[in-house]
């Protein structure tokens, strides 16, 4: 009898302990808003793929004991209105303590206003407009801004002896900032800008712009656009036989550029912060994992998303199981020398701007290669 | 003023205009008969481009075979589209329904719905990115004429537009099915009263219009080097503008207005900036609607 009672007590005690243990596994949710449909869906796909690998790697490395971390993806269609709806939904959901995304600067900034108001830390892998992190103390990014990349490329072009350059840029927040950061730096270094031509997103016919540029006979053209437009632009440049050398921002860096435009890309010079052929074991581990799981070599967009997720999770690990939106923000702000695959990343304590490294690349014989 | 760069801009503009024209032909044919806008025409164009591309990647036949395949697939797609998005709204045969504006406008939305579904399905299957096209098939080989430059694609697209226009005019004015299409276009109810199988005429219109749309898709895809699920949207809008400017049911009118739009765009890029070119195109549309409500080449016609 007494033994039986003892048995019951032991069983109860075990149940209590087990219950307590399961109560300790707390679910922590991160929101990720990204384009999964519409004409930017392939960027969103790359982000999600990379984020899945990032989360799996974090868990494999021990994760955050006592917490089950989940990433919730929402499709913003690269549309500012959709992004604001998602931002409101994430902000209202108290289980979400941090948000990743969105893709373009325009959309990220539209959502950022809501995160700023509601106090949710937001880390975008790609929003590189200078004003993005100025919105509030809640915004972070894992991409070098055009105010760093523009002068970097301007310096390179001056070294190559170019004095007169035409700029062709996509007409959105990012394109405007990319073109003006470059143009200002190039003029400051003693060069001349013959013209800045903006085109609407979705433009595929650049012959009118090329003909117009060619009239002023610049030595070089600087492209602030993505690889799809870049492919059309470079093909039509070859077609119209425009001789000027072509440089571009890192947004052009994608193997698809060469697949699409073939020999027309040869000679293009551009900057980048991620090179999949980098022998660094971290880079190779990611490239292999991505290739095994999704059958493709990741581009720099995937790499930036992987690092963004890594930075977020590292900050979360620092704050521990009882992380709140406030403590997570503070931990993010203290990010220092995060050893990512897009270079070491430190968030400036004052401006929260990331400090990263960029390399020079050139396309020759249908291959991207790093130029010293 | 008339420097060589300006002449090149006019050429650039004409070749942009030809792309719009190629799409406007099928678009206008369907509008002329049914008196409704087929918003899914842009997706038929995209389907044509993807089918052509698949054929090129798998079999690599000569370009002519690719175009014939696109024509065939276009016809099938057109008939299917008619079945899904238009036919259900022709269930009622009474006079009130035939005259009903709401019935007609409902198909406008059903075709829009079909276009969104088709576009997103293609995005899921193929991805939103630009497809890689084998270099040998690209219609981008430059042909220099003195200091000016055109491409073999310009020649192909010009030839295709001419051939399509001629074939359409022949079909509409020299064949029996053409006669019944014109009768339905003129008065759907009258056509029915004299014993014309209007359903058959409408299906034939969709088949022919979509054949032209699909062929346009693969040609323009190879010419621009851009094949994506979204590729039909922007030229679709321009083709629509050209159609409205041209008087809604005049196919030659739509072609001429498409060329005007193309030249306007490239001249705007030259004098102002590329960002303004759409504004100029739409300003043309507004001016046309204000001063020529029937379109530049339109003739007055009862729109019950």
**Main beta sheet of chain A: strand number and arrangement?**
7 strands, mixed
- Helical content band of chain A: 40-55%
What count of structural domains of chain B?
1
Can you give the mean pLDDT of chain A?
A: 88
Could you say how many structural domains of chain A there are in total?
A: 2
Strand order of the largest sheet of chain A: 7-6-8-9-10-14-15
Structural class of chain A: alpha/beta
Sheet-strand content of chain B, in percent, reads under 5%
Low-confidence spans of chain A: pLDDT under 50, at least 5 residues?
Answer: none
Helix content of chain B: over 70%
Q: Residue-averaged pLDDT of chain B, rounded?
A: 87
Q: Can you describe this structure?
A:
The complex is a heterodimer of chains A (about 375) and B (about 300). Chain A has two domains: about 1-145 and about 280-355, Rossmann fold; about 145-270, 3-Layer(aba) Sandwich (Rossmann fold). Helix content of chain A is about 45%, strand content about 20%. Chain A contains twelve helices and 15 strands. Chain A has helices at about 1-25, 40-60, 80-90, 105-120, 145-160, 175-190, 205-215, 225-240, 255-260, 280-295, 300-320, 325-335; strands spanning about 25-35, 65-75, 95-100, 120-125, 140, 165-170, 190-200, 220-225, 245-250, 270, 340, 345, 355, 360-365, 365-370. Chain A has a seven-stranded mixed beta sheet, covered by helices on one side. In chain A, strands 2-1-3-4-5 form a five-stranded parallel beta sheet, sandwiched between helices. The longest helix of chain A has 23 residues, at about 1-25. Chain A is globular and about 95 Å long. With about 300 residues, chain B is mostly helical. Chain B has a single domain (about 5-290), classed as ABC transporter involved in vitamin B12 uptake, BtuC (Orthogonal Bundle), CATH 1.10.3470. Helices cover about 70% and strands about 5% of the residues of chain B. Chain B is built from twelve helices and two strands. Chain B has helices spanning about 5-35, 40-60, 65-85, 95-100, 100-125, 150-175, 175-185, 190-195, 200-225, 235-245, 250-270, 275-290, and strands at about 140-145, 150. Chain B has a two-stranded antiparallel sheet. The N and C termini of chain B lie far apart (about 50 Å).
